[in-house]
Design a protein that fits this description.
- With about 325 residues, the protein is of the alpha/beta class.
- Helices cover about 35% and strands about 15% of the residues.
- The protein has a seven-stranded parallel beta sheet, sandwiched between helices.
- Helix 5 packs across helix 7.
- It is globular and about 60 Å long.
- The two termini are about 30 Å apart.
Length: about 325
């Protein structure tokens, strides 16, 4: 059995779990780089029986799956992976399994980015390293209004954390209910427009879908305060990049922080890399040691269960 671990950027997969029993069944190959070209990807993956996939880093479309005659098992980290054509995999007799996904890391990063924006930490750090001292004045989280777009599993944790900072919290999503807001202590179930107008910080926690693609664009930035900040740790295409750059350059908003992008890894020449007022992190939302231990530990568990004929956490086609 030949097993491939894809997109292990930090070369840490084999350190995050005990792969000994898997190695007894076959050969493991770890890929630390990301392949974008479809032909090159097919050539790389063609020999393998098992693919271990890190979230949506590599898309496994129907065309790619049909070109991999040896493939019998895909294990993705997380309970779902919209970048895998699960229906085609099922038709081809390929089992797709997932893992559990801890829900604390991304909300924690959300507040790290929020605090960095509010206290101007990047510029202050640069000043210190250059021999300087204070260069700006920060903004308090306490008493500020946080607008949460999407009050699901991760948005709910962000709401609870906001209370610890004495923030006022409002929320919006297409299917949000008053009961959900009351359950989480959210003081105001807003319309999207009201949320954007009222919030000092706006943070996005929604799945990417046809409904949320381009959810924040030119009109939305015009509705925000010129002193407001936007944070996105969800999915890149939810925000229109061009509109964001225009809003930052024109002063329509004070700043933004992004952890996710339309294309990942973000191309070196991408204009987001050169936009003032923008804090960028390389999709660190779920990149923590505890998360990796869960992801890869349960990947090992899934491979061994499949090998024994009793696969766990199988993902079915929608």
């Amino acid at each position: 059995m030949r097993i491939a671990i894809l997109d292990d950027y930090q070369n840490i997969a084999l350190q995050s779990a005990d792969w000994t029993d898997v190695q007894n069944h076959g050969e493991i190959t770890v890929f630390n780089d990301h392949v974008c070209n479809t032909g090159d990807l097919i050539s790389r993956l063609e020999p393998f029986d098992v693919l271990c996939v890190m979230r949506e880093r590599t898309a496994l479309t129907g065309d790619i799956l049909r070109a991999l005659p040896n493939l019998r098992l895909i294990v993705t980290t997380g309970k779902r992976n919209d970048a895998i054509d699960v229906a085609t995999a099922s038709e081809l007799g390929i089992t797709v399994c997932g893992t559990e996904s801890p829900s604390t890391a991304t909300p924690e990063l959300t507040f790290a980015l929020m605090l960095a924006l509010a206290r101007n930490l990047i510029a202050e750090n640069a000043s210190m390293r250059a021999g300087g001292w204070q260069v700006g004045i920060g903004q308090d989280l306490a008493g500020s209004t946080l607008g949460i777009i999407g009050l699901g599993r991760l948005g709910a944790k962000v709401a609870k954390m906001a209370h610890a900072f004495d923030m006022h919290v409002c929320a919006w999503s297409a299917n949000l209910t008053q009961d959900r807001c009351e359950e989480l202590g959210v003081t105001h179930m807003a319309t999207k427009e009201d949320l954007l107008r009222a919030s000092d910080f706006v943070t996005i926690h929604q799945r990417l879908s046809d409904r949320t693609h381009g959810l924040i664009g030119t009109n939305e930035f015009k509705q925000m305060k010129p002193t407001a900040y936007l944070i996105n740790t969800s999915r890149g295409p939810i925000i229109d990049d061009t509109a964001l750059i225009d809003a930052l350059n024109s002063g329509e908003i004070a700043g933004a922080a992004l952890d996710v992008y339309d294309k990942e890894p973000l191309p070196v020449s991408h204009p987001l890399r050169h936009c003032d007022g923008l804090l960028l992190s390389p999709h660190l939302g779920y990149v923590t040691r505890n998360t990796w231990n869960v992801f890869y530990g349960q990947t090992v568990e899934a491979i061994l269960a499949w090998q024994s004929g009793t696969p766990v956490r199988v993902i079915k086609p929608n």
